[in-house]
Amino acid sequence: MPKAAIYDPYLDTLGGGERYCLTVAEILLSRGWQVDLFWSGDPTLITQATARFSLKLNELNIVPDIFGLKTTDIDTTESQPITKFISHKSSRQSIITKYITTNKYDFCFYLGDGSVPFLFSHKNIFHTQVPFTYQQNLKEKLLSKLKSLFINQIVYNSQFTASFTPNNLSSKTVVIYPPVDIDQLSPNLPKQNIILSVGRFDNILNSKKQDILINVFSRFVRQNPNTNWKLILMGGSRQSPKLNHYLIHLKDLAQNLPIEFIINPDFDQLKQVYSISKIYWHAAGYGIDQNQHP
């Protein structure tokens, strides 16, 4: 039986990138592969992901995380490069561990933030959903070139992110858009006066800027006091909603407004609200200098 490994340091956010990676796992499982997921966090996460994304992951194995990338929340201004918010340091011992472990696999699919990892399986796929925009010194550039020798292909989620590929990696790139299971969606329900925004309530890599949406919607309500429109903010929270300071801040902003929060929805809830909403709205990237932070 062929063996595959999957890695996603942001797995507990259960966002779009996580659905992408776990869909790869589901496809491989359906074709008779053994699939291992490098993860040392909450062991119930796969059960949560199955409910959130409606994926078949019963045979997915969880194995200890050998990469150990640590993520932290960013502030909502995004005034600093995302490299500040995840640690990529590798000791000589950790590289040896990665070699011994990943060399046992026929295939490795790794979700990263643009920094190239050391991978040593027979076929290594590096997937990124953010542009390669890191400023590197000479030593870092040489190390990245060495790492890239072991990467068979770089998979992007859009032509935009692919457009930032370094010249030395351009021959290895391919764009595969996020999959959508249209058979599970029903667009025939009556639409309601709902503005929907879906995005995690955790600031990892980028902020979904729900605070901007609330402030603009608040102005709309003040100017139209008899409106029957409602804003629904739906998304995941890694920690208990009672402990999520960003979510608490958003709820404070939304007081006395026709705004509803749906936290950690399952797939059926997502489908239902998408189906009845008239408008989809998001503010990710709003106010950001695209030349500095594309």
Write structural notes for this entry.
The chain has eight helices and eleven strands. It has 294 residues and is an alpha/beta fold. The chain folds into two domains: 173 residues, Rossmann fold, CATH 3.40.50; 98 residues, 3-Layer(aba) Sandwich (Rossmann fold), CATH 3.40.50.2000. A seven-stranded parallel sheet has the order 3-2-1-4-5-6-7. Strands 10-9-8-11 form a four-stranded parallel sheet, with helices on both faces. α2 links the parallel β2 and β3. The longest helix has 15 residues.
Strand and helix map with partners:
Layout: E1 3-7, H1 16-30, E2 34-38, H2 45-53, E3 61-63, H3 92-102, E4 107-112, E5 124-128, H4 138-148, E6 153-156, H5 159-162, E7 173-175, E8 192-198, H6 210-223, E9 230-235, H7 245-253, E10 259-263, H8 267-276, E11 277-280
